[in-house]
UniProtKB/TrEMBL annotation:
InterPro entries: ICDH/IPMDH, IsoCit/isopropylmalate_DH_CS, IsoPropMal-DH-like_dom, TTC_DH. Belongs to the isocitrate and isopropylmalate dehydrogenases family. Residues 4-345 form the Isopropylmalate dehydrogenase-like domain. Signal peptide: none annotated. Its EC number is 1.1.1.83. Its cofactor is Mn(2+); Mg(2+). The keyword Oxidoreductase applies. One of its GO terms (molecular function) is NAD binding. It is an enzyme of class 1 (oxidoreductase). This is D-malate dehydrogenase (decarboxylating). Pfam families: Iso_dh.
């Protein structure tokens, strides 16, 4: 099998960790006669934007649409406002390819220290609605610069958009041993979109009687994640809420440098995109010390999506041996470089 993967390293440490991830994927495919990768690199980045005025060149999305998957680093630069870089590149792809299900697993890998007591009980998948809601881009500003200036940012929730993400989350919960799904909203303070979210959730729930459900307001959900991590399994939440909860989940599981994300178009009408959860990390970019584990775990999710379950399991096992070995980057309290970690995991895979 041949997998055509579009690679968009982006900015900052995105370049470093995606290069590392590609090496690991190459090593895995060399170990197996079953599949190979055909990578194509895209220089869509803030540097490109500063030089040409665009992140994605004309016809770029059409070209991207022919690939089997997209492996993405991070976008964000000190020279470009974040709302420009995010919308022009990452959201342009997610929304352009209707990648409405953003999936973020969280657990503490062996050998990783979490500051949270009882963190070893974390085993969550956060399902984030990725196409509308608070990030629908619906709003504006009136009376610019005037003392009476007003800015609006109005979330849009559609029944169709809500129903498909709930269905996706229920199916995912159904496939896990505990079969639990927690609905997170803020439907006490927000009376329209959030209440619609709740209603549609309970309608969809009728089709999944084997899934145990409960609900939590988003503020209470943060405390429950910290105080009773073992009571949660799959969590479904809106674009904004799940964005925040998944960063919390990543930090509780040890480091932002470890957590992966899949942006899925479950119907497979368009390619899905896989990226570590972290950003371009200005403070450590260019130093070669970024933790590549998030990019490796991301690669494992991509393999799974491409139908290479055996290779995905092999990679996950190699990642766990790496973290357990004590070879750790600075964010985890160690002194290993990105390259040290990459070399170690590649030689481990070669020896298996
Ligand atoms: P960030 O994730 O880049 O960094 C937050 C902190 O975590 C920093 O101290 C950083 O050094 C550390 N960190 C992150 N990944 C790490 C890794 N792999 N290894 C070791 N340490 C790691 O978030 P921040 O600082 O809020 O944003 C920086 C830029 O990245 C901004 O322009 C932001 O818009 C962008 N960003 C892009 C994302 C994306 O492309 N999906 C996601 C988050 C932020
Ligand atoms: Mg985030």
């Amino acid at each position: 099998r041949n997998h055509r993967v579009a690679v968009i390293p982006g900015d900052g440490i995105g370049l470093e960790v995606i290069e590392a991830g590609k090496q690991v994927l190459e090593t895995l495919s060399q170990k197996s006669d079953d599949f190979q990768f055909e990578f194509e690199d895209f220089d869509w980045s803030s540097q490109r934007y500063l030089e040409t005025g665009e992140y994605i060149p004309e016809g770029g999305l059409e070209k991207l649409s022919t690939f089997d998957a997209i492996y993405f680093g991070a976008v964000g630069s000190q020279e470009v406002p974040d709302h420009v870089s995010l919308w022009e590149l990452r959201l342009a792809i997610c929304q352009g390819f209707d990648q409405y299900a953003n999936v973020r697993p969280a657990r503490v890998l062996p050998g990783v220290n979490s500051r949270l007591k009882g963190a070893e009980k974390i085993d969550w998948v956060i399902v984030r609605e990725n196409s509308e809601g608070e990030y629908a881009g619906n709003g504006g500003r009136a009376h610019r610069g005037h003392p009476e200036e007003v800015g609006t940012e109005v979330a849009i929730f559609t029944r169709k958009g809500i129903e498909r993400i709930h269905r996706f989350a229920f199916k995912l919960a159904q496939d896990r041993p505990r079969k639990k799904l927690t609905l997170v909203t803020k439907s006490n303070a927000q009376r329209y979109g959030m209440v619609l979210w709740d209603e549609v959730f309970f309608e969809v729930a009728k089709d999944f009687p084997d899934v145990t459900i409960d609900r939590e307001l988003v503020d209470a959900a943060t405390t429950r994640m910290v105080l009773k991590p073992e009571t949660m399994d799959v969590i479904v939440a809106t674009n904004l809420h799940a964005d925040i909860l998944s960063d919390l989940a990543a930090a509780l599981s040890g480091s932002l440098g470890i957590a992966p994300t899949a942006n899925l178009n479950p119907e497979r009408a368009y390619p899905s995109m896989f990226e570590p959860i972290h950003g371009s990390a200005f403070d450590i970019a260019g130093q070669g010390i970024a933790n590549p584990v998030g990019a490796f775990w991301t690669a494992a999710m991509m393999l799974e999506h491409l139908g290479e379950s055996t290779a995905a399991e092999r990679l996950m096992a190699a990642i766990e041996r790496l973290t357990a070995s004590g070879l750790q980057t600075k964010d985890l309290g160690g002194t290993a470089t990105t390259q040290d970690a990459t070399r170690a995991i590649c030689s481990d895979i070669e020896q298996q």
